[in-house]
Each structure stands twice: as C-alpha cells, then as structure tokens.
Write a structure and sequence with these properties.
One of its GO terms (biological process) is DNA transposition. By secondary structure, the protein is an alpha/beta fold. The chain contains nine helices and five strands. It has two domains: 130 residues, 2-Layer Sandwich (Nucleotidyltransferase, domain 5), CATH 3.30.420; 70 residues, no CATH class. α2 packs across α3.
C-alpha cells in the first residue's frame, strides 16, 4: 500500500547535503505509516535548495500523489530556505508545521537555560490554549523577551493546541524524516548514480520486508 491507500496525509520535507565528491543537496519527502515508521515518497538531487528547486520538487510530488491544492495535507519541515514560499505556490491549501527541535535551536541562540528549554517544549506539547498560555506566562517570568521572540513562529505551526483538527496527528518533530536521512547515510558518500541506485534498492527491500511481515 502506498501513500494514496495507506499512509497518513503527513509529509516530512528536508534537504540533505551530499557527502561525496559530487556537490549538491538531496531533497526528500517522507511519509509516515500507521506504526509511525518512515515511508520514503520521493527524493531528488539539486545544486542547492532555493524557492525554485523546492517548487520544482513539490510540483513533481503534487503530480505523483494527486495532492490537488494541498487540501487535507500537512507538511513538516525545518523551515528550509525557499520551502515555505514554494509550498504556498504549489500547494496553497496545505498546512505547514515547523519542527520544534529546529525552532528550539534557532531560539536558543539568544535564550539558553534548561528551564527555558523545558517551558518551550511544554508549550509545544500543550493540548489546549489555556495550558499553552500558562507555559508562556511561566517563560515570561524568566525572560519576557524570550516569549516575544518565540511567538514570531505562529503557534498553529508548532503547538498542539492550535493544530488543524482535520488531520489528527500530534507530531511536533521531524524525527521520521531524520530517521530516513540517517538510514541513507552511507549512500550519500557515493557517486550520484550509485547513490540513487542504492537508495532505490534500500527502499524496495524495505517495502518488500514490510509487506512480508503483514502477510505472515
């Protein structure tokens, strides 16, 4: 079963630098099955990530998966360069979440401390608006400016309390996409043709193994 028949309408997007002699980046789209395992959907090599390269990639993904205007689809990303603009262009009705780990890494450049990090994550995990506001209030008691900077990221993009209810997934991280990136780490050191072939074979074998498990 593929995306259209058996996967959640939740897609992680990422751009990975190649590790071999060939330079460039690998754009990836990764789905998630009902067991929360990653399910590779698409990958392509570009010279660098830009709005143009992401738009090209998303147009191919849109056509392959019949995503229409993006209705009912949620994307998760680390806010890669040019990606948000590309999503608005190709799939204007899609929802877009930000990986909280990436929000944290940007935010912590200015605001550090274990207690502040805890409150950031508790804010993201809050399942109703009042809890979210309570966590922000506690954070404000430590550093008021930290709340102001954090709210530059729209809460509907990283806090459970404000997620779209059409697609019921509480994920606040892009871990499943990062798992795929680690899974193909060895291939990323190889020449481009060999790399793409190795990824293709790994994906085929994984899908076959999953099918065998279901049938037994």
């Amino acid at each position: 079963m593929g995306y259209k028949e058996g996967l959640r309408p939740f897609i992680g997007l990422d751009a990975i630098f190649l590790n071999g002699k060939a330079k460039g980046q690998l754009l990836v789209a990764v789905g998630q099955d009902n067991m929360n395992h990653f399910y590779p959907l698409a990958w392509a090599i570009v010279d660098r990530e830009t709005k143009r390269s992401w738009t090209w990639f998303l147009e191919l993904l849109h056509n392959s998966l019949d995503l229409n205007m993006g209705n009912g689809v949620t994307f998760m990303s680390d806010m890669q360069k040019g990606l948000m603009e590309a999503i608005k262009t190709v799939l204007p009705e899609a929802k877009h979440r930000f990986c909280v780990g990436h929000v944290e890494s940007n935010w912590c450049k200015e605001y550090r401390g274990l207690e502040m990090k805890k409150l950031l994550w508790w804010s993201a995990w809050a399942t109703y608006a009042e809890d979210f506001k309570d966590q922000l209030s506690k954070l404000g008691e430590l550093k008021e400016a930290a709340v102001t900077v954090l709210l530059k990221y729209p809460p509907q993009s990283w806090c459970r309390a404000y997620f779209d209810t059409v697609y019921k997934n509480q994920g606040v991280g892009n871990n499943f996409t990062e798992s795929f990136n680690s899974w193909i780490l060895e291939a990323r050191y190889k020449p481009i043709i060999k790399m793409l072939e190795d990824i293709r074979l790994k994906v085929m074998n994984q899908l076959r193994n999953h099918e065998d498990k279901v049938r037994t």
